[in-house]
């Protein structure tokens, strides 16, 4: 398997025992066209490493995931896209239902990635995990006041809750998991309560909600965990001061667990370089790539037993909702209708 050779080479390169150009020269020239909706600087290090040890040139096309999906669709059979990477199960579901992904059978991927973080038929795989957490103002909220996502609709949070637009996939995936847990009627009622509790009309992204809590515009916010980690490690002293006023809470620890979304990818149905595409997905599940994900963007590795960033390590382990990402991803379309109808814009 090309992948094992890669792991060996990676170790040599990291150990400084093997000069990169010599290694690359051993491989025939090959290419991989990667369409990615991820927008993290550290991802480039992943691509550089992969190219260095395999000799495969990665052509990166970066953009908004929804636009990339539309682009692959309009390119049709002539699309150069080999791999599509996105940052939400809902988007993977969209790509899958448009017929843009092809099944991959890989014992390595199936062994490394837990079942709930990959498509049941191998249409896509998750490579990192992102917990949707509650971040709260330490001086105004006690962790004892916090419990579940369901409780965010409780009138005790009236005018105190900050969250981005309901139409964003992070919220739609969360609502998709709530549909699976409680049904549609419950979720619409829940969203009505959330909308009533908002401290302001939704605006900005997750990190803006955290800054707003620190500024006193509200007391609690819903956010993906890595935005809080990013605030803590920010080069900007104002961000670090904001982070110092906040703390993290993992919801639903006493029942099904915290909602965990994935960043993942698929081999495009029309991939001209299928072998390289599969090999690249396997690389993303390797120890080396998982470490770069984990340490670079403060995400949780999908592979068990991997290193965590010091901040995530300090937060400690938590119970995850192990609902398959394919289930809540598929529920996102329905969730959008319910959340809108409930008045959460
Ligand atoms: Fe994000």
Please explain how this structure is put together:
By secondary structure, this protein is α/β, with parallel strands linked by helices. It has 2 domains: 2-129 and 261-315, D-Maltodextrin-Binding Protein, domain 2 (3-Layer(aba) Sandwich), CATH 3.40.190; 131-258 and 318-341, Periplasmic binding protein-like II (D-Maltodextrin-Binding Protein, domain 2, 3-Layer(aba) Sandwich). 45% of the residues lie in helices and 16% in strands. The chain has 16 helices and 10 strands. It has helices at 2-14, 20-25, 41-54, 65-75, 89-97, 107-112, 169-182, 184-197, 206-214, 225-232, 237-244, 274-284, 287-296, 310-315, 325-330, 332-341; strands at 30-36, 56-62, 83-86, 101-102, 125-137, 161-162, 220-224, 246-249, 260-268, 300-301. Strands 1, 2, 3, 4, 5, 6, 7, 8, 9 and 10 form a 10-stranded mixed β-sheet that branches. Helix 3 links the parallel strand 1 and strand 2 (56-62). Helix 1 (2-14) crosses helix 3 (41-54) and helix 8 packs across helix 16. The longest helix is centred in the N-terminal third of the chain and has 14 residues, at 41-54. The model is unreliable at 11-24 (pLDDT under 50). The chain binds fe (ii) ion (FE2).
Keywords, please?
345 residues; alpha/beta; D-Maltodextrin-Binding Protein, domain 2; ten-stranded mixed β-sheet; 45% helix; globular; binds fe (ii) ion
Number of strands: 10
H/E element string? Answer: HHEHEHEHEHEEHHHEHHEEHHEHHH
| CATH class assignment of the largest domain | Alpha Beta
Beta fraction? 15-25%
Secondary structure: helix percent: 40-55%
Oligomer: single chain
- Straight-line N-to-C gap: 49 Å
Q: Spans with pLDDT under 50 lasting ≥5 residues? A: 11-24
CATH architecture heading of the largest domain:
3-Layer(aba) Sandwich
């Amino acid at each position: 398997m090309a992948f094992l050779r890669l792991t060996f080479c990676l170790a040599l390169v990291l150990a400084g025992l093997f000069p990169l150009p010599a290694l690359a020269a051993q491989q025939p020239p090959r290419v991989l066209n990667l369409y990615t909706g991820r927008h993290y600087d550290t991802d480039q290090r992943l691509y550089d490493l992969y190219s260095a040890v395999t000799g495969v040139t990665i052509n990166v096309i970066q953009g908004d995931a929804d636009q990339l999906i539309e682009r692959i669709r309009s390119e049709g059979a002539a699309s150069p896209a080999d791999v599509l990477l996105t940052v939400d199960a809902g988007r993977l579901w969209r790509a899958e239902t448009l017929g843009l992904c092809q099944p991959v059978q890989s014992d390595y991927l199936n062994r490394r990635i837990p079942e709930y973080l990959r498509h049941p038929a191998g249409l896509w795989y998750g490579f990192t995990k992102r917990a949707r957490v509650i971040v709260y103002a330490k001086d105004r909220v006690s962790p004892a006041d916090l419990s579940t996502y369901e409780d965010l609709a409780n009138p005790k949070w009236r005018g105190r809750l900050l969250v981005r637009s309901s139409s964003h996939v992070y919220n739609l995936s969360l609502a998709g998991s709530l549909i699976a847990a409680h049904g549609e009627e419950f979720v619409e009622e829940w969203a009505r309560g959330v909308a009533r509790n908002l401290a302001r009309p939704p605006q900005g992204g997750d990190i803006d909600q955290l800054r707003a809590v620190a500024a006193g515009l509200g007391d609690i916010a819903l956010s993906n965990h890595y935005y809080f980690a990013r605030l803590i490690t920010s080069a900007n002293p104002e961000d670090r001061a904001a982070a110092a006023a906040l703390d993290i809470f993992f919801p639903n620890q006493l029942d099904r667990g915290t909602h965990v979304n994935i960043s993942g990818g698929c081999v495009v149905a029309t991939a001209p370089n299928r072998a390289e595409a599969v090999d690249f997905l396997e690389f993303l599940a390797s120890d080396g790539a998982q470490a770069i994900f984990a340490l670079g963007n403060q995400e949780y590795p999908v592979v068990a037993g991997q290193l965590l960033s010091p901040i995530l390590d300090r937060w400690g382990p938590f119970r995850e909702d192990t609902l398959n990402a394919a289930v809540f991803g598929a529920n996102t379309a329905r969730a959008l209708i319910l959340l809108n109808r409930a008045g959460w814009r």
